[in-house]
Design brief:
Helix content: 40-55%
Structural class: alpha/beta
Bound molecules: nicotinamide-adenine-dinucleotide
Radius of gyration: 26 Å
Shape: globular
Number of helices: 20
Largest sheet: 7 strands, mixed
Length: about 550
């Protein structure tokens, strides 16, 4: 592993010495105050309170973010509700056109987006790139498939020809989105794009650690042509604002931890509103005996260390066939040790920083607990304050046993465990261990065999010969978790239909669905019984 050289090519106006621009005239903000102010004035806030945003890159101060009260949340919903009424009257083509403009805008403003993501999250630029990429893919997909998912749908009626059935997709109204810090641009935006396309308004509460990135997303939505009030942003602690968000929403879309997901689900149940929950994982990565080992080792590095492992679909459990175990491990360790480490804004790093002191504590606790109980560190394992306050080396462990914290609990950091397996039935059984079921990867040169095995793995997405991106970036395919990893799906038709109510409109022509022409009830029942038999014989559904 080598530290990125030079450590920071152009980190911007970084603060030397005391880093408190509010009280120290020699200190400065890492971002232009005017730029930050243009973003933060979008927060619905009347409290006069602000919260300091700081970068995990050297702890540089970024700006002050206004905080919302529960009254501000109510205000945000009121504005969104008014905007939604007008928006629901626009045509699908108009909405799709705005999404396509957003697609272009995101690609044009990519550098600005990547800079802000890196400043706020500390992730490597190449991992930040996944975010505008994912939002652009999502915008294009939903724009191009709008009519397919949301157009009026004709279905078969009870009396062939004489009963016409139309199914309409009606927007839910105002969708509340609560999003996490790990992919702050795409997690704050991508679900909402489908909600807007379906005719809804959105109130989003991004994580407090990554407000500025989410606010840039809101700014780009407006620049693309979405009406200003259609997308409201509130800021504050989830526990405080969460109940007001759920009280105002017609549907809630949550991405975050399983523990918080359960709290949200209970509150939504009280109001009898729907929710989708995209939650945690402890994702397995299977290397079968016929895997291309170079390819598997390359995929393993991405699966394990993208965004320093702070990725819901990243792999933390590696199961390797006996026959290839040592050869795979040698390659995986070598590739990990060749990674360029650093917390800077440039493209040179293979892995950036963790986001916070909290994450650092959890990750180091998992490593130390495993080592204390007898696990071996094949590479990594150290906190690297020389690279950034929250930097931890990419770490591969072996000899991890069930009593160690990192065996079953999500680390959400750059720490993975290696295990051997003897046959594929055992591999599947161990992949299915534990409470989660988000994502799995299977490496084999026999694609058909890997796909057969995938059907036995209890995860919402399975990537064959790829780490996670094949499913994540295939927007036509639903994405989400089984078991404790979630409820509902984003992406595909499932990802937009969740934001609609179906409305069935049946138009009856000719015959009535009741006795007529003097038929008694008993005669009507006989006629209908004969009809049913005939329709079955004709093969009708
Ligand atoms: P978290 O649950 O603590 O926070 C997520 C969001 O919920 C934040 O905006 C937070 O402010 C808010 N929140 C917290 N408590 C709340 C409450 N009581 N009511 C309402 N809102 C509340 O999650 P985290 O630890 O910040 O994020 C990491 C977790 O998210 C990991 O477990 C990861 O696997 C998961 N995640 C899942 C996906 C997915 O698509 N499945 C994607 C990204 C992250």
């Amino acid at each position: 592993m080598s530290a990125a050289q030079p450590p920071s090519p152009d980190p911007g106006p970084l603060v030397e010495g005391p880093a408190d621009p509010e009280h120290d005239p020699t200190a400065s903000w890492a971002l232009e105050p005017g730029y930050v102010e243009a973003l933060t004035r979008r927060v619905v806030s009347s409290t006069g309170e602000t919260k300091r945003a700081e970068s995990p890159i050297h702890g540089a101060p970024l700006g002050q973010v206004p905080q919302s009260s529960t009254g501000d949340v109510e205000q945000a919903f009121a504005r969104a509700r008014t905007a939604q009424v007008a928006w629901a009257r626009t045509s699908l083509d108009e909405r799709a056109a705005v999404l396509l403009r957003l697609h272009d805008l995101i690609l044009e403003r990519q550098d600005e987006i990547l800079d802000l993501i890196c400043w706020e999250s500390g992730k490597a630029r190449k991992h930040a790139f996944d975010e505008p990429l994912h939002v652009a893919l999502t915008a294009r997909y939903y724009a191009r498939t709008a009519h397919q998912h949301l157009g009026r749908d004709r279905r078969g009626g009870v009396v062939p020809v004489l009963t016409r059935v139309d199914v309409n997709r009606v927007p839910k109204g105002v969708v509340g989105i609560i999003s996490p810090w790990n992919y702050p641009f795409t997690m704050a935006l991508c679900d909402g794009l489908a909600a807007l396309l379906a005719g809804n308004a959105v109130v989003v509460k991004p994580d407090a650690q990554t407000m500025l990135t989410a606010l840039l997303g809101a700014q780009l939505l407006e620049e693309a042509g979405f009406p200003a009030d259609l997308w409201q942003v509130v800021a504050g602690a989830g526990r405080e604002l969460g109940p007001a968000i759920i009280a105002g929403s017609d549907y809630v879309c949550f991405t975050g931890s399983t523990a918080t997901g359960k709290v949200i689900a209970a509150q939504c149940a009280e109001r009898l509103i729907g929710c989708s929950l995209e939650l945690g994982g402890k994702n397995p990565f299977l290397v079968l005996r016929d895997a291309d080992l170079e390819r598997a080792a390359e995929g393993a590095v991405r699966a394990a260390f993208s965004n320093a492992g702070q990725l819901c679909v990243s792999a933390e459990r590696f199961y390797v066939a006996d026959q290839v175990h040592d050869r795979f491990v040698e390659r995986f360790v070598a590739r990990t040790e060749a990674m360029t480490l650093g917390a800077t804004l440039d493209w040179g790093n293979d892995m950036g920083s963790l986001i916070s002191a909290d994450q650092l504590r959890t990750v180091m606790a998992h490593i130390e607990d495993a080592v204390d109980r007898g696990a071996r560190v094949l590479t990594g394992g150290r906190h690297r304050p020389d690279l950034g306050p929250y930097y931890v080396e990419p770490t591969i462990l072996e000899g991890v046993t069930p009593e160690m914290a990192c065996f079953g609990a999500e680390t959400f950091g750059p720490v993975v465990s290696l295990y051997r397996f003897h046959d594929e039935a055992e591999a599947v059984q161990r992949a299915n261990d534990g409470q989660y079921g988000l994502n799995a990867s299977i490496y084999s040169q026999d694609g058909a065999r890997a796909r057969r095995l995938a059907t036995q793995v209890r995860c919402g997405t399975v990537n064959v010969n790829e780490a996670f991106a094949a499913t994540f970036a295939s927007i036509a395919a639903p994405m989400g978790g089984m078991r404790q990893s979630g409820v509902g799906r984003r992406q595909g038709s499932e990802g937009v239909h969740r934001f609609t109510e179906t409305q069935s409109v049946a138009t009856q022509r000719g015959v009535r669905l009741a006795p007529q022409l003097g038929l008694s009830d008993a005669a009507y029942a006989r006629v209908m019984t004969t009809n049913l038999k005939i329709l079955k014989k004709l093969g009708r559904a």
